[in-house]
């Protein structure tokens, strides 16, 4: 039986400290597949990210500016020979593939009707990093506003319970730190939307793929260590996350539902801002003052 042919796209920005570990993990991660191409797309890093990539003898694309995650992924796909591949994996540079991860994901997208596969994400200590999400909905935004997103439990968008993360099966969407997409799903769905810059671009793609008949399969047998969740994110990026959540919701729901969703998200960030949380304060300001929204990334 012919092994699935996989291409990998890694999007970097000042990633020189984590990129070697990511690239080294491909040796074990590719067991059971043919790793046909690896592309590192650099979003104008000011560190040695490009030098690290070139020293590893992978294809390197220099964006010349920090164009965002979606733009970097699209640029990486553009240099791949999709006719010679079965699937493409997008990978954060702070991810580490565990042995056989790509093969397990490749098996998943060979299922009829499934064009995207998400792995089980774990922290460096091996503990679960919740990645599964429920569909965005007004009632979930209300619950998160009242009790907080991290404590919303089975009523919020983020699925934190360990049991669903131990069971393979279909999912609404999952974190985009590591995803495998069949070439057919990529071609029929189209490019990732670059207007999101960061956050929600993978959600948008997953939902658009589902519209085209390509569902997402969650495969816990594929394990990927993800370092980034432990480091958090800046207040400016928190604002971008909040704005993009509402933008994505507006694209798929009617006006009244979008207004209710936006009010719930804004109220939740406002309450947490009053509690002294800098990221929530930045998110609240971005939501109520469009002039303060992030429209370009550092180095962009």
TrEMBL record:
Domain (Glycosyltransferase 2-like): residue spans on this chain: 8-127
Family matches, as Pfam families: Glycos_transf_2
Transferase listed as a keyword: yes
Gene3D superfamilies xrefs: Spore Coat Polysaccharide Biosynthesis Protein SpsA, Chain A (3.90.550.10)
Presence of keyword Oxidoreductase: no
Keywords recorded for this protein, A-Z: Glycosyltransferase, Transferase
Pathway: Cell wall biogenesis; cell wall polysaccharide biosynthesis
GO MF annotation, one: glycosyltransferase activity
Source superkingdom: Bacteria
The family this protein is said to belong to: Belongs to the glycosyltransferase 2 family.
PANTHER family per the UniProt record, alphabetical: GALACTOFURANOSYLTRANSFERASE GLFT2 (PTHR43179:SF12), RHAMNOSYLTRANSFERASE WBBL (PTHR43179)
Name of the protein in its database record: Glycosyltransferase, GT2 family
Organism: Rhodococcus tukisamuensis
């Amino acid at each position: 039986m012919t092994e699935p042919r996989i291409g990998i796209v890694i999007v970097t920005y000042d990633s020189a400290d984590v990129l070697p570990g990511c690239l080294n993990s491909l040796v074990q991660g590719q067991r059971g597949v043919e790793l046909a191409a690896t592309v590192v797309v650099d979003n104008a890093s000011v560190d040695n990210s490009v030098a690290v990539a070139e020293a590893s003898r992978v294809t390197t694309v220099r964006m010349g500016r920090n164009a965002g995650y979606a733009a970097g992924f699209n640029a990486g796909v553009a240099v791949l020979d999709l006719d010679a591949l079965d699937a493409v994996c997008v990978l954060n540079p702070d991810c580490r593939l565990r042995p056989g991860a790509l093969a397990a994901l490749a098996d998943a997208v060979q299922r009829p009707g499934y064009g995207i596969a998400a792995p089980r994400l774990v922290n460096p200590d091996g503990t679960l990093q919740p990645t599964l999400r429920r569909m965005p909905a007004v009632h979930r935004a209300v619950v998160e506003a009242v009790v907080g997103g991290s404590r919303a439990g089975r009523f919020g968008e983020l699925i934190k319970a360990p049991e669903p993360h131990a069971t393979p099966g279909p999912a609404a969407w999952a974190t985009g730190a590591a995803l495998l997409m069949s070439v057919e799903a990529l071609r029929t769905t189209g490019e990732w939307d670059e207007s999101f810059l960061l956050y929600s671009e993978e959600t948008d793609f997953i939902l658009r793929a589902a519209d085209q008949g390509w569902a997402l399969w969650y495969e816990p047998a594929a394990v990927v260590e993800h370092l980034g969740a432990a480091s958090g994110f800046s207040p400016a990026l928190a604002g971008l996350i909040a704005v993009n959540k509402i933008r994505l919701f507006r694209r798929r729901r009617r006006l009244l539902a979008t207004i209710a969703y936006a009010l719930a998200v804004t109220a939740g960030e406002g309450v947490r801002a009053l509690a002294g949380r800098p990221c929530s304060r930045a998110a609240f300001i971005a939501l109520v003052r469009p002039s303060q929204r992030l429209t370009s990334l550092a180095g962009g």
